[in-house]
Specification:
With about 280 residues, the chain is of the alpha/beta class. It contains ten helices and 15 strands. The protein is about 35% helix and about 20% strand. Helix 1 links the parallel strand 2 and strand 3. The mean pLDDT is about 90.
Amino acid sequence: MCDKQVDVIVVGGGLSGLFAAKLLKDEGVSVVVLEARHDVGGRTLTVRGPGFDYAELAASFVGKHHTKVLELAEELGIGVYKVKTDLKTTLYAKTGKRSVYAGTIPSTYNLVDLLDLNHVMRTLDDMSKKVPVDRPWESEGATMLDSMTVQEFTEQHCWTKFAKMLTKIAIRSIYLTEPHHMSLLFLLHGIHMCGGLEAMTSVEDGLQEMKLDGGSGKLCDKLGEHLSDVITFGKQAIKITQDVSGVTVCTKDGGAYKGQRVLLAMPPASVAKNPV
């Protein structure tokens, strides 16, 4: 039995899934968004409570290269502000060590550490330029790159604990996942799209230069309002089948949704953990 039949089924109510659904709906395409949780947001999480205005607990930064995000924010009436660059960063390591530093990376007086970090950054930048932004799967050695994790790459190419640590921190802070959950091809594609690793990790003229007024969660909140008639909550997709008539997405609660196309707007780690 089919619960709903549409042109496109979007799995995931995060920013990517909601934005895709908005574009489809605005073009007159029938769409349904299946979200496993009971709220929109995905990798954006803005919390509010007594004693403070709001706090960001997930994806929060935007840069001038995020043209689509900035255009969407303007369309939704959400302003942006620049992040202060005169403040220091505090880093707590698992060992209990606390580092306070200015700039992008922790201070080190070890020349080998800096040379190793520069080496791995240049290597990744050079490799990323060979991955087509519009068709990454057609890059040379795509299968091999996609079968290797970022952690495997760093183990093979980093000489120092310092470079390995910063690579892990960068993946966790930018992608909100672990290096062993991300394929090298996925990372290289992202680096190429963003204009290099330095741009991805920098504040001034980088992708961490600005934040959204009221928190990044407002993007999904406002998109959720626009799409309230097509979002279905508590629907975890567990199986997708395809035949000549289209695709069927089955959910954990026994639901079934049919469509001509399905769009998986989920983190790679979630897809790997719960293949559908």
